[in-house]
Amino acid sequence: MEYSGDNELAKTTTTFDVIVVGAGVMGSSAAYHTAKRGEKTLLLEQYDFLHHRGSSHGESRTIRATYPEDYYTPLVLKSHALWQRAESEIGYRVYFKARQLDMGPSDSRTLRAVISTCQKHSIPYRELDGPKLHDEFSGRVQIPENWSAISTEYGGVIKPTKAVCMLQTLAFTNGAVLRDNTEVTEIKRDENGGVLVVTANGEVFKGKKCIVTVGAWTKKLIKAVSGVEIPIQPLETTVCYWRIKEGYKRDYELGSGGEDGGFPTFACFGFPYVYGTPSFEFPGLIKVAVHGGYKCDPDDRPWGPGAVSMEELREWVEARFSGRVDPTGPVKTQLCMYSMTPDEDFVLDFLGGEFGEDVVVGAGFSGHGFKMAPAVGMVLADLALKGVAEGVELDKFRLRRFEGNPKGNVKDFEDQVKHSQ
Ligand SMILES: Cc1cc2nc3c(=O)[nH]c(=O)nc-3n(C[C@H](O)[C@H](O)[C@H](O)COP(=O)(O)OP(=O)(O)OC[C@H]3O[C@@H](n4cnc5c(N)ncnc54)[C@H](O)[C@@H]3O)c2cc1C
């Protein structure tokens, strides 16, 4: 058997209400939402479900509401409730709360923008200078004199592979048909309305609507299907785990590091842009990585090494963790794919052209989309089924922002948007 799911239904159903192409977290979430609404849904994946060649596998993703771009915070908050709802439906946890700590030079425009986002969306925050940060975290993390840190309650860790599995299971239990090892090679207009989705093994599925969530393969597939070039650059990125020194392991754990609720998830604005999660998935190790990577073809990858500026990361680990984490080098690494837009904003839009509103694209999640997958799935389902995403402002996510403007959305904090090498 080459696929998972109900083959008979796939064969005998002439028309699906929605065909979702690509079963990473975004496609799995979209399929869950459409199936839950009672729509006949087909989810197609080119490789095995839960494979490690895209963007949605692994052990941890950071949750944070502290975006310099204030239009992400509502998606994060909406997703928080939707993650909880999905967890209660499945009966296990994928979301683990922590505090979030953002840091950088006090005059960083990004940090200032984060503060104004918190104010705009009534996110309680505390701005800490070096000594206050030292007291707050008992010396576990430190910053230079001219830096500040922002502490909020809206942080946490999500388990990505487990979360994708949860969304696929919920899609399935709500009636979706799931097929893996099924590469989509063509999406065509059906002369009787809707679309025809053609696979590499020659099968043709008919859908009233199609949602394309193919991550790093978006540029290739959309170009092949429509001739349109969506500016999404695949990057190979490296996740690094560092060893916490003897005597300090519990200090850097999530949720159990003492009375203060454990070590936070964290981000450090500037070059390099560093992010990480508390010790959780691998006892005694803490994740500290650089946001960025090397340009690559998702079908011809370098598979590492060297996608990280290790010297800068070593210095960061040594300086920020008060010598309590071994800065010699990461003891474990994992590879993953980013799909970067020039402005690092998502693409959530109709493909347009001959497909009009029948094909919806969800792509370009630029290394920060996982936490928002439940809300993104809902938006994609809304666009496909209703033609509008009620209550969500999509202006910043439209394809038209790139028309005659290769950089896309203009940002006042340029340090955030230059992470490809
Ligand atoms: C190392 C790393 C760290 C990250 N950290 C964070 C974080 O801390 N917080 C956060 O919120 N986000 C984070 N992200 C980003 C987040 O993981 C991604 O935004 C998200 O996983 C993107 O999911 P996707 O479904 O768009 O892509 P993918 O997971 O790549 O899914 C696309 C799927 O489409 C399939 N596909 C492609 N072409 C075809 C075809 N022709 N036919 C059928 N199937 C096809 C692919 O095989 C793939 O399974 C991180 C990403 C990485 C790599």
From TrEMBL:
It comes from Morus notabilis. The keyword Signal does not apply. This is Putative sarcosine oxidase. Belongs to the MSOX/MTOX family. Residues 17-383 form the FAD dependent oxidoreductase domain. The keyword Oxidoreductase applies. Its cofactor is FAD. Pfam families: DAO (PF01266). GO terms for molecular function: flavin adenine dinucleotide binding; sarcosine oxidase activity. Keywords: FAD, Flavoprotein, Oxidoreductase.
